[in-house]
Design a protein that fits this description.
The structure holds 2 protein chains of 2 kinds. Helix content of chain A is about 85%, strand content about 0%. Chain A is an all-alpha fold. Chain A folds into 2 domains: about 35 residues; about 210 residues, MetI-like fold, CATH 1.10.3720. Chain B has 2 domains: about 30 residues; about 200 residues, MetI-like fold. Chain B is built from 10 helices and no strands. The two termini of chain B are about 20 Å apart. Classes of the chains: A mainly alpha, B mainly alpha. The interface between A and B is large, with 52 and 53 residues.
């Protein structure tokens, strides 16, 4: 146990030590290359003052709102495309054209249309995150085994019953993959959009704003929080969700 | 045929909104205006200049990421201590979006190509490392033993067995890396480029409410991404892993 902990911590100690050496060697100005204790002190000070939590809370709020919209709309559109021929032929070409364009390229356009600040950034996050959700939900519905559908039909399941008990569970592994990809996408876009959209609070803005005042320590503290949130999303949201649904139902190996 | 119909319906709906006069013409330009702008920018060579700069940045970053990612990935798969040292670092740095580093790189290296290329490198390097590493570890052990029994030593074992064996993973990694790099380059250009580039032109157009220029640049970004996928990555796959029988033709 202790041995494992040491092996896991060692790489970070090595990199930390190299960083400290460079920072203290005075090869670069302190303002541009602060030592780790300065970064930690800044992070602590900003946390106590409530500034860092406020930035993080606003970012998470935008992420959750944007992603919720993307998840609801994306799953609905994806399932509609999988179930109805008409929806599929109408929407599939648009989705295939829209998906490969980098989400950030739309950012200035969306900011023009929806204004700077929350609305513009949330709409953009939702729009960008919806593509993987749509594509995977659509594939998932199409990938439900025909034999399950026929077996359920012979046993008299129709309409809602069939959808709820056969198609939805069958498509769920794909839908969850889509949600996961969508959330990762949303997270990457959100940080960048906050830099562009001139929001008042938000981790992206914290980093970008700190540049004006050469506060490299605040930037690095912000980046650390961003990394921690990204890791937390994966470990605390998606892995448990998968365990409680598809793994429990035996759709996927743990 | 169906695809054309669907795109036609969408464009007609857009045109109807643009012509309805509900929104300012500067914000929602008609297709005619956008196409004319696109044509003019293609004609005077400015669009080619922007696209050229963007492609230069994205491929420089991607090339660096490939060199670094392949080397580190193979070393991690081959030597245990390298894996132990780098895997935790890779896992810790991977969840940080590359664009979060943009302001730091701008401070360290100034506005311009260096900062932009570094952001692209950061975005593209993780898929390369992870896929090379998993690919090299997924090489069928029977092949290694068979090649060993036939007398293959270090170098030829690496080039003739490990590299082709890992190639389906590596090519998937390259594709993922390109997708990430393409997103990163547009964002980085908005933040860090000083004069040219497709991302920069979109961002600059916002200041002057030139939505037609934005739409024109968006169309070019989409077209380049599509063309690279169709004419670079799919043929690459056909000529390597599909031909070697490592994966089936889709």
């Amino acid at each position: 146990m202790i041995g494992r902990f040491v092996t896991a911590a060692l790489p970070f100690l090595v990199v930390g030590a190299i960083w400290e050496l460079v920072a203290h060697s005075a090869a670069f100005p302190d303002r541009l290359f602060p030592s780790l204790e300065v970064v930690a002190a800044t992070a602590w000070r900003l946390t106590l003052a409530g500034i860092l939590p406020h930035h993080a809370a606003d970012t998470v709020f935008r992420l959750v709102t944007g992603f919720a919209v993307a998840a609801l709309a994306g799953v609905a559109i994806g399932i509609a495309m999988g179930r109805s021929r008409m929806a599929e032929s109408l929407l599939l070409p648009l989705v295939s054209i829209g998906a490969p364009i980098p989400g950030l390229a739309y950012a200035p356009l969306f900011l023009l249309w929806f204004g700077l600040g929350d609305t513009g950034s949330i709409v953009l996050v939702a729009f960008v995150a919806a593509f993987p959700v749509i594509q995977n939900s659509w594939t998932g519905v199409k990938a439900v085994k025909e034999i399950w559908v026929r077996a359920a039909r012979t046993m008299g399941a129709e309409g809602r019953l069939l959808f709820r008990h056969v198609i939805l569970p069958g498509a769920l592994p794909y839908i969850l993959t889509g949600l996961r990809l969508g959330l990762a996408q949303a997270w990457r876009i959100l940080v960048a959009v906050e830099m562009l959209a001139a929001v008042e609070w938000g981790l992206g803005w914290l980093i970008f704003g700190a540049r004006e005042f050469l506060n490299t320590d605040a930037m690095l503290a912000g980046i650390a929080v961003i990394g921690a949130i990204g890791l937390g999303l994966e470990k605390l949201v998606f892995q448990p969700l998968e365990r409680f649904t598809v793994v429990r139902w035996g759709m996927m190996a743990a | 045929m169906r695809a054309l119909l669907s795109i036609g319906v969408f464009l007609a709906a857009y045109e109807a909104v643009a012509r309805s006069g509900w929104f300012a013409a500067a914000l929602v330009p008609t297709l005619e205006v956008s196409l004319r702008t696109l044509w003019a920018m293609l004609g005077d060579g400015s669009m080619a200049g922007h696209a050229g700069n963007t492609l230069f940045r994205v491929f420089s970053g991607l090339a660096l990421a490939c060199a670094f990612g392949l080397a580190l990935g193979f070393l991690m798969a081959r030597y245990r201590p390298v894996e132990r040292l780098f895997l935790p670092l890779v896992s810790a740095l991977m969840p940080i979006p590359s664009l979060a580093w943009a302001p730091v790189f701008i401070l360290w290296f100034g506005l311009g190509n260096t900062a932009t290329i570094l952001v692209v490198f950061y975005a593209a390097t993780f898929p390369m490392v992870i896929n090379t590493w998993s690919g090299a570890r997924a090489v069928n052990p029977i092949w290694l033993r068979a090649a060993g029994a036939m007398g293959a030593g270090g170098t030829s074992m690496f080039w003739k067995v490990v590299v082709p064996g890992a190639s389906p993973f590596i090519i998937t990694g390259l594709r993922l890396a390109f997708q990430r790099a393409w997103i990163a380059v547009v964002g980085a250009e908005m933040l860090a480029a000083s004069a040219f580039g497709l991302g920069w032109v979109i961002f600059d157009a916002k200041e002057f409410l030139n939505a037609d220029i934005m739409l024109a640049a968006l169309a070019v970004i989409g077209a380049i991404g599509f063309a690279l996928e169709k004419f670079a990555f799919q043929p690459l796959e056909r000529h390597t892993v599909v031909r070697w029988g490592m994966v089936k033709r889709a």
